[in-house]
Automatic annotation (TrEMBL):
<feature type="domain" description="Lysidine-tRNA(Ile) synthetase C-terminal">
    <location>
        <begin position="398"/>
        <end position="465"/>
    </location>
</feature>
<comment type="function">
    <text>Ligates lysine onto the cytidine present at position 34 of the AUA codon-specific tRNA(Ile) that contains the anticodon CAU, in an ATP-dependent manner. Cytidine is converted to lysidine, thus changing the amino acid specificity of the tRNA from methionine to isoleucine.</text>
</comment>
<feature type="binding site">
    <location>
        <begin position="45"/>
        <end position="50"/>
    </location>
    <ligand>
        <name>ATP</name>
    </ligand>
</feature>
<dbReference type="Pfam" id="PF11734">
    <property type="entry name" value="TilS_C"/>
</dbReference>
<keyword id="KW-0067">ATP-binding</keyword>
<dbReference type="InterPro" id="IPR012795">
    <property type="entry name" value="tRNA_Ile_lys_synt_N"/>
</dbReference>
<keyword id="KW-0547">Nucleotide-binding</keyword>
<keyword id="KW-0819">tRNA processing</keyword>
<dbReference type="GO" id="GO:0032267">
    <property type="term" value="F:tRNA(Ile)-lysidine synthase activity"/>
</dbReference>
<dbReference type="InterPro" id="IPR014729">
    <property type="entry name" value="Rossmann-like_a/b/a_fold"/>
</dbReference>
<keyword id="KW-0963">Cytoplasm</keyword>
<dbReference type="Pfam" id="PF01171">
    <property type="entry name" value="ATP_bind_3"/>
</dbReference>
<comment type="similarity">
    <text>Belongs to the tRNA(Ile)-lysidine synthase family.</text>
</comment>
<dbReference type="InterPro" id="IPR012094">
    <property type="entry name" value="tRNA_Ile_lys_synt"/>
</dbReference>
<dbReference type="GO" id="GO:0006400">
    <property type="term" value="P:tRNA modification"/>
</dbReference>
<keyword id="KW-0436">Ligase</keyword>
<protein>
    <recommendedName>
        <fullName>tRNA(Ile)-lysidine synthase</fullName>
        <ecNumber>6.3.4.19</ecNumber>
    </recommendedName>
</protein>
Length: 468
């Protein structure tokens, strides 16, 4: 196929004009009059794919006036990394394109995990740099889709994994999803050779990443050793696999619509308004539906799926759950845990270092204290259950936040007796793993409130607390 800017124009019109913006007579006016005018950002590595995409955007800008910027992530893994960055900066300066540069540091743990580490660090850095509602365009093409499909096939993926990459998807990193970023792959149906031909026709220059020839990396092995054999036997293999992934995506969408009904029926609110699954509702479903609901529950929170072994173990325990049984299963950097009749997915707060404003770190929450100003949102130390707190109290009083003081006595109501803090938190439904993360508000040295849960009946001051 002959690649030109019209391909990119049609892609943007299909995915981002008609579906997301106010309709006008032209794509340009649609974008100009949008309620949320998007930032189009090109992921610019310096390789031929990203350079070709960058040039297509230059042509799009010239023909339509649609503007864009570029972002480059310097991983520091190659001895040429700084040279590549400098060349891209010169290119963007010449073309009057804003270039955002992000530096990341990766501590390689093994050859097989370096790809994933670099990918995670790259998307984290990009998410931090982009504005809300930005759309990141990458140079993924037809052969990349083939590699993804084959690698997932070798890992034993099911329908979700084999559906591979979509032309437009949510951002793959949680930080990006919180900012409502999207990932766009405008060249996903384009053969690699068409991209190279386009680059040569327009006399473009690009860099060759020396690591791309290292077959110790699975993706390189697939690209250099497997794909050539497939193309030799089946010249249209790329188009065929691309068609298969589109069909799988359609079937997956249909399945998700079906599962959504059961998912919503099982969805509930746990402590702190946390999204949880109601175990009683879950166990009323067939085993196949249970698996589908749990997978959807996990994916919608952390953008990944639990391994089949974890899923099977979880459901075996849930379906044989005793009242005193506590489930604790790791999924990525989170844990599936049970509390009473609820299934939670939570961060590993118990093993996290609490990072204070002065730069120190500790795992002993009882040693952490924070003085706050009345009426203002105060940022809490990192890796806490809450991110911010606001205490309203008369200015002449001193408000201090403390944690994990379980021996403290607390009187929730005037007509109730005093209770140990740990016992009271248990009665409120607070799971054990969060109890030491609940901020305790002390006014002039006296325990006045437990977060926004309760104010002490003995409190002599007018106080209100908000957390978020």
């Amino acid at each position: 196929m002959n690649l030109d800017w019209q391909h990119l124009h049609s892609f943007v019109e299909q995915h981002f004009a008609k579906q997301h913006f106010i309709k006008q007579h032209t794509l340009e006016s649609e974008l100009e009059h949008a309620h949320e005018k998007p930032d189009f950002v090109v992921a610019l590595s310096g390789g031929v794919d990203s350079i070709a995409l960058f040039h297509l955007f230059l042509q799009l800008r010239e023909n339509t006036g649609i503007n864009f910027s570029a972002i480059h992530v310097n991983h520091g893994l190659s001895q040429y990394a700084q040279q590549w960055q400098d060349k891209l900066q010169v290119l963007c300066d010449q073309k009057d394109v804003r270039l955002i540069v992000q530096q990341v540091s990766i501590q390689a743990q093994s050859r097989t995990s370096l790809e994933q580490q670099a990918r995670d660090a790259r998307y984290q850095a990009i998410a931090n740099a982009l504005n809300t509602h930005s759309i990141l365009f990458t140079g993924h093409h037809q052969s990349d889709q083939m590699e993804t499909f084959l690698l997932r096939l070798m890992r034993g993926s099911g329908l979700t994994g084999l559906a591979s990459m979509r032309e437009v998807s949510l951002f793959p990193h949680l930080a990006g999803r919180q900012k409502q970023l999207k990932l766009a792959r405008a060249l996903l149906s384009v053969p690699k050779q068409s991209i190279v031909d386009f680059a040569k026709t327009h006399d473009l220059t690009w860099v060759e990443d020396d690591s791309n020839s290292d077959e110790a990396f699975d993706r390189n092995y697939a690209r250099l050793s497997i794909l050539p054999q497939l193309f030799k036997r089946w010249p249209l293999a790329g188009k065929s696999i691309n068609t298969s992934t589109i069909l799988l995506q359609q079937e997956l969408d249909l399945l998700n619509e079906y599962v959504e009904q059961d998912y919503l029926a099982c969805l509930a609110k746990g402590f702190n308004q946390q999204a949880v699954l109601d175990i009683n509702s879950l166990t009323d479903l067939s085993l196949s539906k249970q698996k589908a609901v749990v997978r959807m529950f996990v994916y919608r929170q952390i953008n990944t799926y639990p391994a089949l072994t974890i899923l099977n173990e979880l459901l075996q325990q849930i379906n044989n759950l005793n009242p005193d049984t506590n489930i604790h299963l790791k999924v990525a950097d989170s844990f599936l845990k049970t509390h009473k009749t609820h299934l939670y997915l939570v961060n590993d707060l118990a093993n996290a270092f609490i990072k204070e404003a002065n730069g120190s770190s500790t795992r002993d929450l009882s040693a952490v204290e924070l003085m706050v100003s009345s009426g203002k949102w105060s940022v809490l130390p990192e890796n806490m259950l809450y991110k911010e707190i606001k205490v309203e109290v008369a200015a002449e009083h001193t408000a201090v936040i403390k944690w994990a003081r379980f021996s403290e006595m607390f009187q929730p109501h005037k007509n109730s007796g005093h209770k140990k803090l740990n016992k009271y938190l248990k009665e409120t439904g607070c799971p054990t793993w969060w109890r030491d993360h609940i901020p305790l508000v002390y006014i002039n040295g006296e325990l006045a409130a437990i977060a926004d849960i309760a104010v002490s009946a003995e409190c002599k001051y007018k106080v209100s607390v908000e957390v978020r």
